[in-house]
Write a structure and sequence with these properties.
Helices cover about 35% and strands about 25% of the residues. The chain has six helices and seven strands, in the order E-H-E-H-E-H-E-H-E-H-E-E-H. It has a seven-stranded mixed sheet with strand order 3-2-1-4-5-6-7, sandwiched between helices. Helix 1 packs parallel to helix 6. The longest helix is centred in the last third of the chain and has 16 residues. The protein starts with a strand and ends with a helix. The structure holds 5-O-phosphono-beta-D-ribofuranosylamine (GRF). 5-O-phosphono-beta-D-ribofuranosylamine binds next to helix 1, strand 5 and helix 6.
Amino acid sequence: MLKVGVLVSGGGTNLQAILDAIDCGKITNAEVSLVISNNPKAYALERAKNHNIEAVCISPKQFENREEFHRALLAKLKESGVELIVLAGFLVAIPPMIVEAYPNKIINIHPSLICGVGYYGLHVHEKALERGVRVTGATVHFVDTGTDTGPIILQKAVKIKSDDTPEVLQRRVMEKAEWKILPK
Ligand code: GRF
């Protein structure tokens, strides 16, 4: 069994998609053994606890500086023995210290087909609508030391409708793309 650690900051619907894929037998060779959030209020932590998965909050606020925070994060990952790290809506840039400790063992889900600095959350969908693109989608990629620059693993396109709002589009991208390609 591959031991997977999932890093989250918010609602955790992508974490849930992974847990559901395990529960229904679509994923048979991996288990989520640890969930870490930087945000103590993340509902994703509840989702983990409901599955009897170790759920830990490691917040930058608990540390004197960013480096101490990064060290604590790495120490917890190492201690738990996870072999694959999944960033499922984790709003913390992964420092080189962690990328180098897990080369090609960290993957991220991004809610569009192209990634770039400032493209996160609702902004991604606002930009797609502003530009008038006809399709958007989601991307699963390896994490390297850049911002969303690692090699792409899987992508799925989603059509944009003329009356879409950023919120409506965000939801459709999650349902039709993110929750499918991340477990896959
Ligand atoms: C998703 O849109 C994901 O692509 C992005 O952050 C959001 C997280 O949502 N990186 P959730 O916490 O999985 O519901």
